[in-house]
Amino acid sequence: MIRVKQLALLLALPFIHQPLAAEPNKEPEIPTTGLKPLRPATEAQFAFLCLNNVKIAKSEDLKQALVKWFKLSSEKEIHEWKFKPETQTFSWRIGRSRFVASFEAQPIPKDDIRYASNNSIHWPNAEQEMLKHAAHYTITCTSIHHEPWHAALDLSHAIAALTETHQPTGIYWGDASIVHAPNSFLKQANYQLDQAGKVPSSLWIGILFESNTKGGWNIFTDGFSPLGHKDIEIHNSQLQRTLLFDLLNDLKQRVLERKLKLTNDLIIDGPDNTQWKINTGKSIIGKTKPVWILTQQ
Hints:
single chain; 297 residues; alpha+beta; 2 domains; 7-stranded antiparallel β-sheet; 6-stranded mixed β-sheet; 27% helix; signal; DUF4261; DUF4261 domain-containing protein
């Protein structure tokens, strides 16, 4: 798992450090007043598009798909478009985000696919299907959006465009350690920033389980950090998996949509009339940054 994340970040590095200033004598494409700088390279958001074959889409087809998914008026809103045949890499900028899509004519290592597939309880046949893939894209996104999840949505739209112009096996969201079936991904990725309804947090945040040595369950989110929040963990709970999943699934949604701000000693209601106390603590699965730990009261 670490190997593929490091690869994605290395691929993004040359693109991340290009300045966002306008070219001389041209009107800036992005207003720079009051905007935050690009996030550090280690926080570049990335995902993998796994393919059934080794065919690369034509530039014109991919551009048309990007116009559709980003709701652009024309291809003129796609800036700095490049395709490098020697590295089989597409790069471009739309609005506040820059993208790199690098093609590899080989599959992602099987152990990484199995790990992510086993985490993806929303796709029961994930491992069987994903192990069939023959090639993949690594897609990275850096952005000056104020909300990191807006960049994740931009990345989702870019992947959707690539998905529609290729023959995909599935999408592997690297920071969440989960995979998605193509049709399910496209349905959720159809969300737009000005749209009412639920933000598609399940595309970007995984909810993972492991059995505890004391007989209970450990359950934790993966993927919150690039979205600007701490991940969330529950240690050694005796509740049913479905109840624990519902608790974290509801919590991640409310946190991402800023309908709930987590703080130390906050008490929240959970399923089956349970109450949970929130505090900062050390991750049970070795995450280097502190996480929110929920303890049943």
